[in-house]
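thread: overnight batch results

M.L. [08:02]
morning all. the overnight job finished for the chain we discussed friday. pasting input first so we're all looking at the same thing
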Amino acid sequence: MFKGIFRKFKPDNQPKYGWFGNYSSWLDVLKEADGYDSGVILERTMKALLKVKAGEAVYERDSVIFDKKDYPFPLLTFLQHSAAKKGSPLHVIDFGGSLGSTYYQIKEFLTVNVCLSWNVIEQEHYVAAGKINFEDDQLKFYNSIDQCIQDKDIDFFLISSAIQYLEEPHIFLNKLAAYHFDFILFDRTAFHYEAEDRLTLQVVPPNIYPASYPSWFFNQEKLLSHFAESYDIITDFPPYIDGEQTLYIDGYPLGYSRGFYLSAKNKIK
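M.L. [08:03]
and the structure it wrote out:
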Protein backbone atom coordinates (compact mmCIF):
# COMPACT_ATOMS: atom_id res chain seq x y z
CA MET A 1 0.00 0.00 0.00
CA PHE A 2 1.95 2.92 1.37
CA LYS A 3 5.30 1.90 0.07
CA GLY A 4 6.72 4.23 -2.52
CA ILE A 5 9.96 3.61 -4.35
CA PHE A 6 12.35 6.52 -4.51
CA ARG A 7 14.35 6.97 -7.67
CA LYS A 8 16.82 9.61 -8.76
CA PHE A 9 15.48 11.27 -11.90
CA LYS A 10 17.70 13.56 -13.89
CA PRO A 11 15.95 16.76 -14.91
CA ASP A 12 14.95 16.94 -18.56
CA ASN A 13 12.27 18.59 -20.57
CA GLN A 14 9.61 15.98 -19.95
CA PRO A 15 10.37 13.50 -17.16
CA LYS A 16 7.90 10.61 -17.21
CA TYR A 17 8.28 9.19 -13.73
CA GLY A 18 8.85 10.61 -10.28
CA TRP A 19 7.09 13.45 -8.45
CA PHE A 20 5.17 16.26 -10.12
CA GLY A 21 3.21 19.36 -9.30
CA ASN A 22 2.23 21.38 -6.25
CA TYR A 23 -1.40 20.52 -5.60
CA SER A 24 -3.78 22.41 -3.34
CA SER A 25 -5.80 19.37 -2.23
CA TRP A 26 -5.76 15.58 -2.05
CA LEU A 27 -8.86 15.41 -4.27
CA ASP A 28 -7.09 17.40 -6.96
CA VAL A 29 -4.32 14.81 -7.10
CA LEU A 30 -6.75 11.91 -7.11
CA LYS A 31 -8.31 13.29 -10.28
CA GLU A 32 -5.04 12.40 -12.03
CA ALA A 33 -3.97 9.39 -9.94
CA ASP A 34 -4.78 5.69 -9.80
CA GLY A 35 -4.60 5.51 -6.00
CA TYR A 36 -2.87 3.16 -3.57
CA ASP A 37 -5.49 0.44 -3.53
CA SER A 38 -4.89 -0.70 -7.09
CA GLY A 39 -5.12 -4.48 -7.22
CA VAL A 40 -2.05 -4.74 -9.44
CA ILE A 41 0.17 -3.44 -6.62
CA LEU A 42 -0.97 -6.13 -4.21
CA GLU A 43 -0.81 -8.82 -6.90
CA ARG A 44 2.77 -8.02 -7.92
CA THR A 45 3.95 -7.61 -4.33
CA MET A 46 2.42 -10.90 -3.23
CA LYS A 47 3.86 -12.77 -6.21
CA ALA A 48 7.36 -11.44 -5.50
CA LEU A 49 7.23 -11.98 -1.75
CA LEU A 50 5.91 -15.53 -2.09
CA LYS A 51 9.09 -16.28 -4.06
CA VAL A 52 11.15 -14.86 -1.19
CA LYS A 53 9.22 -16.91 1.35
CA ALA A 54 9.75 -20.06 -0.74
CA GLY A 55 13.48 -19.40 -1.07
CA GLU A 56 13.20 -18.78 -4.81
CA ALA A 57 14.29 -15.15 -4.46
CA VAL A 58 16.54 -13.32 -2.03
CA TYR A 59 14.81 -10.02 -1.46
CA GLU A 60 11.75 -8.01 -2.47
CA ARG A 61 11.20 -4.26 -2.28
CA ASP A 62 8.17 -2.48 -3.73
CA SER A 63 7.26 -5.66 -5.68
CA VAL A 64 10.70 -5.84 -7.34
CA ILE A 65 12.87 -8.92 -6.80
CA PHE A 66 16.60 -8.53 -6.13
CA ASP A 67 19.35 -11.14 -6.08
CA LYS A 68 21.15 -9.35 -3.24
CA LYS A 69 19.77 -7.69 -0.13
CA ASP A 70 20.14 -4.02 0.72
CA TYR A 71 20.16 -4.28 4.49
CA PRO A 72 18.59 -1.36 6.40
CA PHE A 73 21.45 -1.10 8.87
CA PRO A 74 20.02 1.95 10.69
CA LEU A 75 16.83 -0.02 11.42
CA LEU A 76 18.81 -3.04 12.60
CA THR A 77 20.96 -0.84 14.83
CA PHE A 78 18.01 0.92 16.43
CA LEU A 79 16.05 -2.28 16.96
CA GLN A 80 18.99 -3.80 18.82
CA HIS A 81 19.65 -0.58 20.74
CA SER A 82 15.99 -0.30 21.76
CA ALA A 83 15.82 -3.90 22.95
CA ALA A 84 19.01 -3.42 24.96
CA LYS A 85 17.69 -0.20 26.47
CA LYS A 86 14.38 -1.85 27.38
CA GLY A 87 16.15 -4.91 28.69
CA SER A 88 13.67 -7.12 26.85
CA PRO A 89 12.72 -8.08 23.28
CA LEU A 90 10.36 -5.79 21.40
CA HIS A 91 6.84 -5.88 20.05
CA VAL A 92 7.19 -3.92 16.80
CA ILE A 93 4.58 -2.18 14.65
CA ASP A 94 5.51 -1.81 10.98
CA PHE A 95 3.03 0.79 9.77
CA GLY A 96 2.30 0.47 6.05
CA GLY A 97 4.49 -2.63 5.99
CA SER A 98 2.93 -4.21 2.89
CA LEU A 99 2.92 -8.01 3.21
CA GLY A 100 5.91 -8.09 5.55
CA SER A 101 8.60 -6.99 3.12
CA THR A 102 10.86 -5.55 5.81
CA TYR A 103 10.24 -8.51 8.09
CA TYR A 104 11.50 -10.94 5.46
CA GLN A 105 14.35 -8.59 4.61
CA ILE A 106 15.73 -8.72 8.17
CA LYS A 107 14.15 -11.88 9.56
CA GLU A 108 17.47 -13.52 10.41
CA PHE A 109 18.27 -10.61 12.75
CA LEU A 110 14.94 -10.70 14.60
CA THR A 111 16.21 -13.08 17.25
CA VAL A 112 14.36 -13.90 20.48
CA ASN A 113 16.35 -11.30 22.39
CA VAL A 114 15.50 -8.54 19.89
CA CYS A 115 11.95 -9.05 18.62
CA LEU A 116 8.97 -10.93 20.06
CA SER A 117 6.50 -9.93 17.36
CA TRP A 118 6.45 -7.98 14.10
CA ASN A 119 3.02 -6.47 13.49
CA VAL A 120 2.11 -4.98 10.11
CA ILE A 121 -0.62 -2.33 9.90
CA GLU A 122 -2.13 -2.20 6.43
CA GLN A 123 -5.23 -1.85 4.27
CA GLU A 124 -7.85 -4.56 4.62
CA HIS A 125 -7.03 -6.38 1.40
CA TYR A 126 -3.35 -6.49 2.35
CA VAL A 127 -4.20 -7.77 5.82
CA ALA A 128 -6.41 -10.49 4.36
CA ALA A 129 -3.67 -11.59 1.94
CA GLY A 130 -1.03 -11.36 4.65
CA LYS A 131 -2.94 -13.56 7.07
CA ILE A 132 -3.51 -16.24 4.46
CA ASN A 133 -0.06 -16.30 2.85
CA PHE A 134 2.54 -14.89 5.24
CA GLU A 135 1.46 -14.77 8.88
CA ASP A 136 3.43 -16.93 11.30
CA ASP A 137 4.20 -17.05 15.02
CA GLN A 138 6.19 -13.81 14.84
CA LEU A 139 4.66 -11.92 11.87
CA LYS A 140 1.08 -10.66 12.33
CA PHE A 141 -1.25 -8.39 10.36
CA TYR A 142 -3.74 -5.80 11.63
CA ASN A 143 -6.11 -3.24 10.12
CA SER A 144 -5.28 -0.51 12.64
CA ILE A 145 -2.97 0.49 15.45
CA ASP A 146 -5.83 0.28 17.94
CA GLN A 147 -6.61 -3.28 16.89
CA CYS A 148 -2.96 -4.24 17.32
CA ILE A 149 -2.47 -2.71 20.77
CA GLN A 150 -5.42 -4.70 22.06
CA ASP A 151 -3.24 -7.78 21.57
CA LYS A 152 0.29 -6.45 22.10
CA ASP A 153 2.10 -3.99 24.33
CA ILE A 154 3.97 -2.24 21.52
CA ASP A 155 7.46 -0.91 22.24
CA PHE A 156 8.78 0.14 18.82
CA PHE A 157 6.89 1.91 16.03
CA LEU A 158 8.40 1.80 12.53
CA ILE A 159 7.06 3.98 9.73
CA SER A 160 9.17 3.63 6.60
CA SER A 161 8.19 5.36 3.36
CA ALA A 162 4.60 5.57 4.54
CA ILE A 163 3.71 8.88 6.20
CA GLN A 164 3.98 10.77 2.90
CA TYR A 165 1.14 8.64 1.48
CA LEU A 166 -1.50 9.54 4.07
CA GLU A 167 -4.24 11.99 3.18
CA GLU A 168 -4.01 13.84 6.52
CA PRO A 169 -0.51 13.11 7.82
CA HIS A 170 -0.45 15.75 10.56
CA ILE A 171 -3.63 14.42 12.15
CA PHE A 172 -2.02 11.00 12.12
CA LEU A 173 1.21 12.37 13.62
CA ASN A 174 -0.71 13.94 16.50
CA LYS A 175 -2.35 10.59 17.20
CA LEU A 176 0.96 8.76 16.94
CA ALA A 177 2.60 11.04 19.50
CA ALA A 178 -0.34 10.47 21.86
CA TYR A 179 0.21 6.68 21.89
CA HIS A 180 3.56 7.40 23.54
CA PHE A 181 5.31 4.28 22.29
CA ASP A 182 8.79 3.87 23.76
CA PHE A 183 10.53 4.25 20.40
CA ILE A 184 9.55 5.64 17.00
CA LEU A 185 11.61 5.23 13.86
CA PHE A 186 10.89 7.29 10.76
CA ASP A 187 12.74 5.89 7.74
CA ARG A 188 12.72 6.85 4.04
CA THR A 189 10.61 9.94 4.73
CA ALA A 190 10.31 12.59 2.02
CA PHE A 191 11.14 16.22 2.83
CA HIS A 192 11.76 19.36 0.83
CA TYR A 193 13.36 22.71 1.53
CA GLU A 194 10.30 24.97 1.58
CA ALA A 195 8.45 26.23 4.65
CA GLU A 196 5.16 24.51 3.79
CA ASP A 197 4.45 20.88 2.95
CA ARG A 198 4.10 20.15 -0.75
CA LEU A 199 1.58 17.73 -2.25
CA THR A 200 2.66 16.04 -5.48
CA LEU A 201 1.61 13.33 -7.89
CA GLN A 202 4.01 10.37 -7.84
CA VAL A 203 4.16 8.36 -11.07
CA VAL A 204 5.76 4.93 -10.62
CA PRO A 205 7.88 3.42 -13.41
CA PRO A 206 5.86 0.61 -15.04
CA ASN A 207 8.66 -1.93 -14.56
CA ILE A 208 7.76 -1.72 -10.85
CA TYR A 209 4.00 -1.50 -11.31
CA PRO A 210 1.75 0.83 -13.31
CA ALA A 211 0.46 3.25 -10.68
CA SER A 212 0.30 6.85 -9.60
CA TYR A 213 -0.82 8.39 -6.32
CA PRO A 214 -0.63 11.45 -4.07
CA SER A 215 2.66 11.93 -2.24
CA TRP A 216 3.64 14.57 0.34
CA PHE A 217 6.97 16.32 0.81
CA PHE A 218 7.25 17.64 4.36
CA ASN A 219 8.90 20.54 6.05
CA GLN A 220 11.24 18.71 8.42
CA GLU A 221 10.80 21.00 11.43
CA LYS A 222 7.01 20.91 11.20
CA LEU A 223 6.89 17.13 11.05
CA LEU A 224 9.15 16.72 14.05
CA SER A 225 7.32 19.41 16.05
CA HIS A 226 4.57 16.88 16.78
CA PHE A 227 7.02 15.03 19.03
CA ALA A 228 8.90 17.90 20.66
CA GLU A 229 7.17 17.67 24.05
CA SER A 230 7.18 13.92 24.59
CA TYR A 231 10.16 12.57 22.64
CA ASP A 232 13.88 13.07 22.35
CA ILE A 233 15.21 12.97 18.81
CA ILE A 234 18.20 10.71 19.34
CA THR A 235 19.62 10.94 15.83
CA ASP A 236 18.83 11.38 12.17
CA PHE A 237 20.26 9.31 9.35
CA PRO A 238 20.35 9.08 5.54
CA PRO A 239 18.38 6.49 3.54
CA TYR A 240 20.02 3.11 3.16
CA ILE A 241 19.01 2.83 -0.50
CA ASP A 242 21.37 4.40 -2.99
CA GLY A 243 19.80 7.22 -4.97
CA GLU A 244 17.28 8.34 -2.35
CA GLN A 245 19.42 11.09 -0.84
CA THR A 246 18.07 13.55 -3.42
CA LEU A 247 14.47 13.49 -4.68
CA TYR A 248 13.38 15.25 -7.84
CA ILE A 249 10.13 17.19 -8.20
CA ASP A 250 9.22 18.23 -11.74
CA GLY A 251 12.70 17.10 -12.73
CA TYR A 252 14.53 19.33 -10.24
CA PRO A 253 16.41 18.35 -7.04
CA LEU A 254 13.98 19.91 -4.59
CA GLY A 255 13.60 17.13 -2.01
CA TYR A 256 15.47 14.59 0.06
CA SER A 257 14.86 11.45 2.08
CA ARG A 258 15.76 11.24 5.77
CA GLY A 259 15.16 9.11 8.85
CA PHE A 260 14.82 9.89 12.57
CA TYR A 261 15.06 7.78 15.72
CA LEU A 262 12.94 9.00 18.63
CA SER A 263 12.87 7.87 22.26
CA ALA A 264 10.01 8.71 24.62
CA LYS A 265 10.92 11.07 27.43
CA ASN A 266 10.67 9.87 31.02
CA LYS A 267 9.90 6.27 30.06
CA ILE A 268 13.19 4.51 29.37
CA LYS A 269 16.15 5.06 31.65
